Each structure stands twice: as C-alpha cells, then as structure tokens.
Amino acid sequence: MEAIPRLSRPEDWSPPRIVLVGMGMGPADLSAGALRWIQKAEVLFAGKRHLESFPDHPGRKVPLGKSLDESMAELDAVSRRSRAAVLASGDPLFYGIGRRLIQLLGRERVSVIPNVTAVQALFARMGVPWEDIRVFSLHGREAGEGEQDWRSAVREGATVALFTDHRHHPAWVAERLIDEGLTGCGLIVGEDLGRDTESVRRFSPAEALQCSFSPLNLCVVVPGEGRGQPGGGFREQAAGQPPVFGIEESALAHEAGLITKLEVRAVALAHLQLRDGLILWDIGAGSGSVSIEASRIAALGRVISIEKNVDRFRQLVENIGKFRGSPIEPLCGNAAELLADLPEPHRVFIGGSGGDLRGILEQVAARLLPGGRVVHTAVTLDTFEEMRTFWQGRGWRLDLLQLQVNRSVPIGRSLRFEALNPVFVVTAVQPGGSPVEQR
Predict the structure, then answer these.
(1) Do 411 and 272 touch, CB atoms closer than 8 A?
(2) Which residue among 116, 151, 173 closes a domain?
C-alpha cells in the first residue's frame, strides 16, 4: 500500500508546490479554507476577472495570457522560487485548467482546492438532480471536433450540458439542433452564474437562434423538452397546449386527406407497443402525425421519419417544430435508399412506400431487432395482400385488422354519421420476442 502525499495546511506550503484554487461561480463561493491558501500565496496567476476580485492581495498578480503554454512556462519558473496559486473558474478538475496544469507540471507539484462547477450551480438553480446528465465541453474546440458526441447523446434521449465559447454559443447549438431535425428539444441557458447579472432562461431552438447571450454561459439541451424537466416526469401542461395523445388532424399541416386519421393512428400506436429508449422508423411519414404522437407518449431513443415528397417533407418539418416530444429526425428521400444507413430499429411504422413496398419490406425484415414489431396501414386490397403474404411467408406472427370509422357530422339540428375510407392495419411481430414484446 502506498500513501498519496498531500499538502494539508497553508503553513506547510513551500516552492515548487503550486496550489490550484477553484473559484466556483465567484468569490462568494470561496470557503474560509480556500481563502487561507490564497492569502498565503506570494504570486497569483489567474484571468483578469479573478485577479480583480483580490485588489488588496499583497502578492504579485500575473494575468494568464492567451497562450497557455507561455503562461505555464512562466508559472513553472515562478513557482520554483515563490508560493504560486492559480485561480480558476468552477472546479478546475472538471473541464478546467487542472488537467493541463497537471499534464505539464506533474501531479506531485499541484495541490487542488475544488469548488462548485457551473453544471452544479445551474442545476441547483433549477432544482433538478444532475447525476444522470451528460456533460461535454465545446470550449476551444476546432470546427466539427466532438460535435457528433453530444448530438448522439441528445438523440439517445440524454439531457446534455455544454460548456460553450465565443464560437460554440447557445445560438450555434440551436442551429445544429434545427439542422438535424431535433426541433423538439428545449434549451436552458445559464448566463453570468454567480454574478449580479445572472439569468437562467428557457428557449426552443428557434427562439435561441434569434438571441444573443453573455459570453459566460452554460447551455443545457433537454431532449423532448416538452415531455418534462430534466430528470424525468411530465410537466403540467399549460392551457392551450395540445394533448399528449390524440392530436387533431386540423392541428397538423398536411395535404388534403393525406394524413393518418386520429382513430387509425391510435390503433397503430397501440400495436407498436412503444417503450422508453426504443428506436422507431416512420416510413412514408407524410405529415409526421404518427412520429409526433409516438414521440409524445414515450421517451424514445430515436425517431426517424422518412418522406419522399418534398412538399410533404416541408409539412413534416413544420409539424415537428410545433409539437415537442422525443427528438424526431426527418429525412427527405427514397426510403429504400436511406434505410441501409440508419440504426437498426425496434419498431417500424409504414404509412407509405413510394412505389417500392417490396424493397422496403426486405430491408425492414433484415434490419429489425429481435422481438421487433412492424405496423403497416393500407387502403387498397393489393397493398394489404402484398403485406400479408410477405410476412406470412417468413413465419412472422400477424395481426390483421380492418378499421371502418364513422364520424358524426351535423345535419340541420341533428347529426348523421359519415364514413371514412376503410383502412387495413397489418402488424407483423418478429419470432423470438418475449411475451411482453409480442403482445
């Protein structure tokens, strides 16, 4: 067994030991113990903002320059003859200067006084536990570096906290979310945390895109932010907001008649047997009514909506922006050409095939994860029969339904019933799933 040496008292401090002090959100977060270390220092290295917090400190004050390598070289030299303290924001070992300092000067020369991080502070302001939050730093990153990591985490349903910089600011984050069709996310931005100008605000991506922010900010991305606060659970819905389930056709932009009717949608979603974390493909998504409803009733891992028609795709994107739920990724193009590059699904809904139903079914059958489900809707006997024979020929279990819906319409002072077109619903269940999966 080997003991790890530590510097326990300011009175025992001598060169070349360096003390790295976390400032938290500002001087108010410094403990009496941390202040003793700072007062014992003969030289303070810090950014201008932190140095200005100690106007009466008797020691020499050295601003950390734009070149961290040059600053570290000077710190190395000075600390060999004087007690040098480095002041850093937040907790210096949490996406801070601590890692670089220890790499350059060695762990044996650096003693760290930790403090509160911006992530802790922001989630404390919101009153939300943060042990499950994914944290990424965009600070000082080159274009494209690490971008896929945080966006993948959002698509997987994680709440993500992002350390930002002058290039990777909240409006930039919002732009990336919109570009990927993750418009159902919410953004929470904490600015100037710990200062008199502190603010914490909530935005949709479209709102954040139009705003400017303080350079000192932390950005949190909440997938399907309309579903609830970070940490889970539905929020109480504000008056006038659409229901979690059962969105009227009139609330969705769509081409006349080309939308999965509410009653058919309800049956299809029931047969999809959705659960949190699953991946759903919506093929021939049209207005996106099924994707949007699915995203609001379960915290799905990914929802990928494919629509070939350009005009209907625009309506799909518009509708996704209106209704918040699990993130939805819209793709415009031929499904048979796009499916090969998508993650394997647990569930597939097919509302249209663009004339290549057989090719789509072949790919779905090959890619569907064990125990998965496919739900189709069709209005013609030919399409119904093609679906039925395809799955039956593979030994999959089938549930076959025909829905005939009659809606009431006014006639004078009374009502009559008006029939909608009959719709076939075909559910194919892959062999080998658990009883829960299969029914």
Answers:
(1) no
(2) 116
Eight-class DSSP state of 66: S
Task: Look at 173-187, 226-240, 346-360, 419-433 and tell me which has the smallest mean pLDDT.
Answer: 226-240
Q: Which pLDDT score is estimated for 98?
A: 93
Structure tokens at 201: 């605000």
357: which 2 tokens?
A: 């139903």
Question: Cβ distance 223 to 154 under 8 Å?
Answer: yes
Residue 132 identity (one-letter amino acid): D
Query: 98 with 132, same domain?
Result: no
pLDDT exceeds cutoff 60 at 435: no
Cα 150 to Cα 97, 177, 331: the distances in Å are: 21, 11, 20
Look up the domain containing 112 and give its range.
14-116
pLDDT recorded at residue 236: 36
Side-chain-side CA neighbours of 311 within 13 Å: the count stands at 4
Q: Give the closest residue to 286 by CA, choosing from 262, 261, 309.
A: 309
Tally of CB atoms within 10 A around 312: 21
The string of pLDDT tens digits covering residues 87-139 is 999 999 999 999 999 998 999 999 999 999 999 999 999 888 999 899 999 98
Distance between first and last Cα of the chain: 56
